[in-house]
Amino acid sequence: xxxxxxxxxxxxxxxxxxxxxxxxxxxxxxxxxxxxxxxxxxxxxxxxxxxxxxxxxxxxxxxxxxxxxxxxxxxxxxxxxxxxxxxxxxxxxxxxxxxxxxxxxxx
Length: 107
Description:
The chain is α+β, with helices and mostly antiparallel strands.
């Protein structure tokens, strides 16, 4: 799950990939609720409340782009060959995984 920002996961995401992320079991119930901190469990319960829920189409590529970590938010300091750089100096290596793919400095 660390590959994704939990705060960006929606109820529709949970419905489609909750089991894949090991957050839900095959019955769409929260897996191992006793392991979650109270505030996380509350958010999980809200996102896993499928009563009167109608699933919408799901795109894994859109999910990765929306929920993946943003390099600009994580990069604290960068230098390449003695010159400062920013997140804008990096490009995605794999178009399939968009934001979640490793970034390479374009120096």
